[in-house]
Amino acid sequence: MIDLLDGARWRLARTDAGSVLDPADLGDDLDWVDAVVPGTVATALGHSLAVDPDEHDWWFVTHVSTGDHRRVRVRFGGIATRARIWIDGVHRRTVTSMFVPETLDLPDCGDTVTIAVHIESLAAQLKSRRPRGRWRSSLIAAQGLRHERTTMLGRAPVYGPLPVPVGPWRPVTMTPIPDVRRVDLTTEVSGTDGIVTLRADLGAPGVARILIDDRAFELGRVERVDTAVTLPDVELWWPHTHGRPLTYRVALEVDGTVHPLGVVGFRTVELDRTAGGAVLTVNDETVFCRGGTWTPLDPVRLWSPEPELRAALVQLRSAGLNMVRIVGTLVYEQTEFWSLCAELGIMVWQDVMFGTVDPPTDDTYTAAVTRELDAFADTVSANPALMVVSGGSETQQQPTMLGLAAEDQRMVMLDSIVPNFLADRVPGVAYVTSSPSSVSGELHTHVGDGIAHYFGVGGYLRPLSDIRTAGVRFAAECLAFAVPPERAQVEKFFGSAAVAGHHPDWKAAVPRDRGSSWDFEDVRDHYVRTIFGVDPHLIRRDDAELYLDYGRAAIVEAFIEAFGHWRRASSGCAGALVLTLRDTVAGAGWGIVDTAGVRKAPFYALARASAPVALLLSDNGLDGYSVELVNDGPARSGTVRVVLHASRGSHEFERTVSAPANGSIALTVDSIVGTFTDVNHAYRFGSRTYSAVTVLFLDDSGVEAARSTALVGVQSRQNTVGLTANVVEKDSGTWELTVRSDWPAQYVCVDIDGFEVSDSWFHLAPNEPRTLTLVGRGGGVPRGHVRALNSVERASVAPKVVSGNS
């Protein structure tokens, strides 16, 4: 459909709060600048933004020619936050929520339409006296935000130094008034059949039929559609780790004109919370959920082109991650995000936009939330990727931590209004009152009950062993660290690693809780001390690069321990989502991917543990190493091979195994070897016998499907471990890199700018080569190095030049 506003020029001007209330009074003496829509004040002004956008009023204005169209619909996808919409000098709509789209039909417009959006100062609004909540939020300073339907981005320092989003952050469109009006799609599964229910209003009576892929369902002459049609023997939608994410295209044809309505999918969802658990089943199959919390790719504009969203989601999919969570302190995602998740088989946990505040109960606020949920339901209509809806982030945890009794922290919004609405408009999804939350009578802060936010390893400085004893059942947030970007990215963002740990530019990007005397870099340094037995501050004084490498390695160690335990069948854990998937600002943020989309060290550890077929290797002390082969797909058979590396060579042992469909098999290295070997040197009888152990799973054709390597004992840093790296071109833009070492190499890092490597930050056993894939992001040849944490010397990477006579 034609969009008359496509390519329109928008202009932006600032006025003092309340000084200009009518667009007719906007003077030519204002400083007008060009603006981008969708976008925000900060998008338009960039580095020249020298004021808090909340402190002022802002005007976005455009003029658009309507051509031959006299009946048009203007749709504002979202305006942050309080605003008035003027069209041709007439006040048409008042906006009180950034999460609610506004639609205006102009049945008789002229040749040109002038649109003016007046965004009012939120700071001025917050000065008015309104009822206080039952508790204070520790996330934000302005407690009056509990009455506003807006994001906490830019208002909560934990997300970094971001500007407050003000402006039309979602697309503004002007189209001919459509023949097919409000559409509501839902799906359900009945036995082997799929049922699609479609409700739609037509502009006038017409002969209609529903089109689902290549099938047509005749409706006859109608003015309103309210019909359920059945598709026999439908193929179900699966998360990509467990099957094929199949979707069906739906359209409504009226008098020969086809109106596409998007895609739908068929799946069943259940969240079993009995006995303090939280187990997600899709199509009656248990799914271990792994992924992280989603942040907008552009946290200033809050909108991204479809190719950028696709690239980010494909990156997560390639790592074996199958769930993202949209957190209740941020924003709802754009339509393209949802269609991509359905296509790629990525499950979504969606928080309603409630944070740590006490939501008001007045009718005006409730009506605003209901409209917000209605808009969300329109966006996710029959989208199979939506699995769980939560009543917000830490909404119940905040009053619990402040010591309120259970009865005093009840919220009618979470207990009845939201779930009742969802049951009507978004059926077939799981609902939880908040993240975290308990349903068995325990406090909402207890990590071993229900939905947890687990930061025992992390902000609360618990030892890595706490991961095994905490009994986490489902971590909707976990493992928050200040993760340094890779070396080349640090150079690009800051010029050198010398800024790490102390420079204001570096520290501005390090997450910290409001009012705390520490930040998450202090947390990272703590684990460097406890895991590696070194003083990170002394290392930073002499070698800033090595200081960051120790920090990266400590975080990888935590990720390996956590996901290596949680994904085991015996752990009782059904899922874990890291905080966060991507940084909001350049630097050592929570993200496992930086703001440029480049993977950071823990990304690789998470990917290895999240693969649909993975080997989880764990040191169990006096019981030696245990190994669990987990398999998300159909049943597999093959061989588990154990390689023990000693000073005088290696020894191999094998066992034929059969891994059940969507299941696992647990073994011990000792049982495969068949004799007592003290591989992990737990008994300490004499000197250490083995330096490393590698476990591989080979399928029936002998192809390696999974691998895991552990190094035995403390790895001392030495001058060299004999690293070598050879690279050859495989296809255009794709290269193979083979890495080898003479001695155990601890946390081998492949550092080649401009290329994505298939794996990095792994242990390398002696004389056991690893072949990796390099894919170029912008052409050229790979040049860089391979290094290990326990080696001063590193190996250069550069293609060999072959002479013409060779």
Please tell me about this protein's structure.
The structure is a single chain. This protein is of the alpha+beta class and 806 residues long. It is 18% helix and 33% strand. The chain has 15 helices and 40 strands. Strands 2-1-3-8-5-6 form a six-stranded antiparallel sheet. α8 (466-469) links the parallel β23 (451-454) and β24. The protein is globular. Residues 802-806 have low confidence and may be disordered.
Main traits of this protein?
single chain, 806 residues, 6-stranded parallel beta sheet
Short précis:
The protein is of the alpha+beta class.
Give me the secondary-structure topology.
Layout: E1 10-15, E2 33-35, H1 41-45, E3 57-65, E4 72-76, E5 83-87, E6 90-95, E7 102-106, E8 112-119, H2 122-126, E9 172-176, E10 180-190, E11 193-212, E12 215-231, E13 248-254, E14 257-264, E15 269-272, E16 279-282, E17 285-286, E18 289-294, H3 306-318, E19 323-326, H4 335-344, E20 347-351, H5 363-379, E21 386-390, H6 397-401, H7 412-425, E22 430-432, E23 451-454, H8 466-469, E24 474-478, H9 487-494, H10 504-508, H11 520-532, H12 536-542, H13 544-566, E25 575-578, H14 601-610, E26 613-619, E27 625-631, E28 636-646, E29 649-659, E30 663-668, H15 669-673, E31 690-699, E32 704-711, E33 724-731, E34 734-740, E35 745-752, E36 755-757, E37 762-764, E38 770-776, E39 784-788, E40 795-797
Parallel strand pairs: 18-19, 18-25, 19-20, 20-21, 21-22, 23-24
Antiparallel strand pairs: 1-2, 1-3, 3-8, 4-7, 4-9, 5-6, 5-8, 10-11, 11-12, 11-13, 13-14, 15-16, 16-17, 26-27, 27-30, 28-29, 28-31, 31-32, 33-34, 34-38, 35-37, 35-39, 36-38, 39-40
Helix pairs in contact: 3-4, 5-7, 11-13, 12-13, 13-14
